């Protein structure tokens, strides 16, 4: 398990806002469950699997 950072959470929320997509659509694009995303974005969950971080990082750095 790896700790998420406020910076990562903020970056995910920011890009999600820029793309104007729902958590459900973010889940489809990343392969991370919407429940996990909800908890990460709300700050309720800070410890996640390495694979989850990798999927989110891939999505963040993917060219739009």
UniProtKB/TrEMBL annotation:
GO molecular function, one term: DNA binding
Pfam families: HTH_3 (PF01381)
Domain HTH cro/C1-type intervals: 14-56
InterPro entries on file: Cro/C1-type_HTH, Lambda_DNA-bd_dom_sf
Name recorded for this polypeptide: HTH cro/C1-type domain-containing protein
Organism encoding this protein: Lactiplantibacillus plantarum
Biological classification of the source: Bacteria, Bacillati, Bacillota, Bacilli, Lactobacillales
């Amino acid at each position: 398990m790896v700790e998420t950072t406020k910076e990562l959470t903020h970056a995910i929320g920011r890009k999600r806002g820029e793309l104007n997509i729902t958590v459900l659509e973010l889940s489809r694009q990343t392969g991370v469950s919407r429940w996990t995303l909800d908890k990460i974005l709300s700050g309720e969950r800070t410890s996640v699997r390495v694979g989850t971080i990798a999927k989110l990082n891939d999505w963040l750095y993917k060219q739009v």
